[in-house]
Design a protein that fits this description.
Blueprint (H helix, E strand, L loop, with lengths): L2 H33 L4 H25 L8 E2 L15 E8 L2 E11 L2 E7 L3 H6 L8 E5 L2 E5 L4 E5 L10 H12 L3 H9 L26 E2 L14 H13 L7 H8 L9 H10 L6 E3 L5 H9 L4 E7 L4 E11 L7 E6 L2 H4 L2 E6 L4 E3 L5 E9 L2
Helix pairs in contact: 6-7, 6-8
Length: 379
């Protein structure tokens, strides 16, 4: 083989190597995109709706016992990695003032588009782990959700339910790989699941949002609302919350409802079980909708002191989440929102939150987005 022929062959080989490498790189990017649910569209959605969302936080600030005044900043988002190759678009944006995280904005995506929820989030944990100043990863496996920095790890009860059995091998495989990495390796792996994100503009003066065009709404102050504790008792906590509110002499817990209905604490339940439990306690909620509750009915329920049960479902992972509707606000379709009692928040003790009505999606503080699929109400 002469030098000229060898040179041509070598040139072809080098070209093929670059083509293969480029193809692999593009394939890798594509595969990463499958788990890259942290989209720039979510950032844009938050930027466009942040004043409305922050107005909702103002409405709940007294019930959260936080002071919202002056300057607020929105921190970089985190997500809860659940070790699936594809998971829901669900980002958590901590909001802080004077280096202290006060509450969290959830941005989520469903077949109805983007939606939001505002809640206390895990503000105590995020402040303890110094989220604003440290590299932090958040992931959920088995019964725990972990907030991990290089020097600290905090474990809490995992708000996610039990995924379908078909996912278990995938979760196990990904977790085994992840668990063998050192913290920097884990952090890089975690961050690679996210797109490059632009910073959401700082809200310089919260006072400009108060008494703004979004207005204030109507909410019921629930009497003895209940949490689901460290079990899958969201349905029972919702029943106990409604019954306690309507019947002042009752002091039910989620455990009481599970025991009365002979359903295990981690067995979960359907919207039909919720209906049966309300009937068991002589609560005459005879209207069941296998859909979200129409806006006119929401207003009628709240105006007449009748909180209602909301069933959320995620067909992909195979389980749901139950919350209680207890308020509304907003006059236009684009600004309508519903105030909820979410029994999974506050480490299972429950908390008030707001969600956008246009998307009718909510979360439990974990990695899953729930679509509002059923309602039990008085009207």
């Amino acid at each position: 083989m002469n030098k000229k022929t060898f040179s041509v062959i070598l040139s072809i080989i080098i070209s093929l190597v670059f083509i293969i490498n480029d193809s692999f790189s593009k394939q890798f990017e594509c595969n990463m995109h499958n788990i890259c649910f942290c989209e720039k569209n979510a950032i844009q959605y938050l930027s466009e709706n942040k004043e409305e969302i922050l107005n909702s936080a103002i409405e709940l600030s007294d019930e959260w016992n936080i002071d919202l005044s002056g300057k607020l900043d929105i921190a970089k988002p985190y997500y809860v990695y659940n070790f699936l190759n594809k998971q829901d678009t669900l980002l958590y944006f901590p909001v802080y003032s004077n280096e202290k995280i006060l509450f969290t904005i959830s941005i989520m995506h469903s077949d109805k588009g983007y939606g939001w929820m505002v809640s206390p989030g895990y503000n105590d944990v995020l402040n303890k782990i110094e989220y604003l100043n440290n590299k932090v990863i958040v992931y959920a496996i088995d019964q725990y959700i972990y907030f991990e920095s290089e020097n600290n790890t905090i474990a809490l009860n995992n708000p996610d339910g039990k995924f379908k059995d078909t996912y278990l091998e995938e979760i196990k495989k990904n977790y085994e790989f992840f668990s063998k990495l050192d913290f920097i390796g884990k952090y890089n792996y975690y961050e690679n699941n996210k797109s490059n994100l632009s910073i959401v503009n700082t809200v310089s003066d919260i006072n400009t949002i108060k008494n703004s065009k979004y207005g204030t709404g109507v909410s019921i102050t629930l009497i003895k609302p209940r949490g689901q504790h460290n079990h899958e008792m969201c349905w029972a906590a919702s029943v106990a919350t409604i019954v306690n509110h309507l019947k002042n002499n009752m002091n039910l817990t989620a455990y009481d409802v599970c025991n009365a209905m002979n359903i295990g604490y981690d067995a979960g339940a359907s919207i039909y079980d919720v209906s049966s439990a309300l009937t068991h306690y002589n609560v005459s909620y005879n209207h069941m909708y296998l859909d979200l509750l129409p806006w006119s009915k929401i207003k009628k329920c709240i105006n007449n002191n009748k909180p209602f049960a909301i069933g959320g479902m995620n067909e992909s992972v195979g389980y749901g989440h139950e919350v209680v509707g207890r308020g509304y606000a907003g006059s236009k379709d684009s600004t309508r929102k519903v105030s909820l009692w979410n029994p999974s928040y506050n480490n299972g003790n429950g908390s008030y939150v707001f969600m956008s009505y246009s998307s009718c999606t909510f979360d439990s503080g974990g990695s899953v987005v729930f679509n509002w699929t059923s309602t039990i109400s008085y009207y």
